[in-house]
Amino acid sequence: MGKPSSCAATGVGFPYGILYAMKPIGSGSWPQGAEDMRSDVIVMGAGIVGVSIALHLQKRGRDVMLVDRKGAGEETSYGNAGLIERASIAPYAFPRDIGSLLKYGFNTSTEVRYHLSFLPRIAPWLFQYWLHSSPSRHAVATRAMRPLIERCIEAHAELVADAGATPLMRRNGWIKAARTQASLDREIAEAKAYAEYGIAHKILDAAALHAREPHLGEGIIGAVHLTDPATSPDPGGLTKAYADLFVRRGGRFLNGDAKTLEAVANGWQIATAEGALTAKEAVIALGQWSNDVFERLGYRMPLAIKRGYHKHYTPDGNAVLNHPVLDVDGGFVLAPMNRGVRLTTGIEFAPRDAPKTPTQLAACEPLAREIFPLGEPVEDEPWMGLRPCFPDMRPVIGPAPRHADLWFAFGHNHHGFTLGPITGRILAQMMTGETPEVEMEWFRADRFGKS
């Protein structure tokens, strides 16, 4: 909570339903008969996590059907800053210093906003988040997440190569820029502390920063350049490229209603636009809407949503932005995207399905114009989306405790785009009887008690 997300959120809540018969992506074909409506695995959710799971299961010889209400990568996987965040060894923690707490409490921060009427509902979750952000518990979360973060670049690179999507992954890192010496000193100290985890960085004074980013304003006095992370100029497009690879390899992608999932004699069944789809196993990888399905099956897990916004702008004149830039004082990220420069916000606590209230974006835009010459907005309306998070700052990945052949993969705490491919690989390892390459006890669904 104490820092703006490097992965701004996506998609508003929706009632699942069969909205239209979505054509499969790539060269795959529609099922032709009832016999074609059976598969080994149904993967629900075509964001970066679900698509990666489908690909890795397919690679291990499983017949997989991918089911979503939309095309691939059109929700959370679209609306983020495009970071494959190798440098985020420590999860985002709830702040414990008085200054930050007062700033957030008065609801004046550009980093975190909340709907006052929503506080009674979110308060128990925030309290658990605060407890898990203690130094000892935060260290546990860091230990749990480190093996995933360490593999994120390599896992993406594998799929990028297979999908022929090299232009959609850049290896130039991202920049944390400061307006004050105090802020710069904090970022330098943090970067040096993370050096023990093998995270490379460069400290940039104003001259060195403006050599890399000549169009940043003079209000930025220095920065830390994190050189290990990769970035994407089109995270939604990269997810679609992975989904296209899945279909080219024989996978099928159907429009369907995840809320219709039910256990049947021979496994699991779900309604799709082409009829009832049956498989031995099913995977819930629905991100911010996963609770719409797991709660119907009797599970109770503390999945909360952090909302966020973005908007694209054309650069003014010949201005160019070469890296994603976090303004650590302004509380926003500017990221170079194929559609323009994307301005992404921090966190908004509000009901998942409530109307947009883009006050953060309105507050951040003039600050962003102080440091970069933004031109006209590309869209008339800001885009709003959702980040699914658990209070202990790590996802649920693994088997459902009380249902055979049901699997979970959601709640990646701002890092779904970063961790989608490695999540897909380790869950596929579990589902096909391989020994997972990382310790999976950290991610059990029953770690919250009786779920």
Describe the structure in your own words.
- With 451 residues, the protein is of the alpha/beta class.
- Helix content is 29%, strand content 25%.
- The protein is built from 10 helices and 20 strands.
- The strands form 4 sheets. Strands 5, 6, 7, 12, 13, 14, 15, 17 and 18 form a 9-stranded mixed sheet that branches.
- It is globular and about 65 Å long.
- Mean pLDDT is 90; it is low at 1-34.
Characteristics of this structure?
single chain; 451 residues; alpha/beta; nine-stranded mixed sheet; five-stranded mixed beta barrel; 10 helices; globular; disordered N terminus
Give the N-terminus to C-terminus distance in angstroms: 25 Å
Strand content: 15-25%
The level of helicity is 25-40%
Number of strands: 20
Instruction: Please tally the helical runs, counting DSSP H or I stretches of 4 or more residues.
Output: 10
Series of secondary-structure elements, N-terminal to C-terminal: EHEEHEHHEHEHEEHEEEHEEEEEHEEEEH
Biggest beta-sheet profile:
9 strands, mixed
* Uncertain runs: 1-34
What does the radius of gyration come to?
Answer: 21 Å
Q: Name the structural class.
A: alpha/beta
| pLDDT averaged residue by residue | 90
Global shape: globular
Topology readout:
Blueprint: E1 38-44, H1 48-59, E2 64-68, E3 83-84, H2 98-105, E4 112-114, H3 119-132, H4 135-163, E5 174-178, H5 181-194, E6 201-205, H6 206-212, E7 222-226, E8 230-231, H7 235-248, E9 252-264, E10 267-272, E11 275-284, H8 290-294, E12 304-315, E13 325-327, E14 332-337, E15 340-344, E16 347-349, H9 359-371, E17 374-377, E18 383-389, E19 396-399, E20 406-410, H10 416-431
Parallel strand pairs: 1-2, 1-11, 2-9, 4-16, 5-13, 11-20
Antiparallel strand pairs: 3-8, 5-7, 6-7, 9-10, 10-11, 12-15, 12-17, 12-18, 13-14, 14-15, 19-20
Helix pairs in contact: 1-7, 1-10, 4-7, 4-10
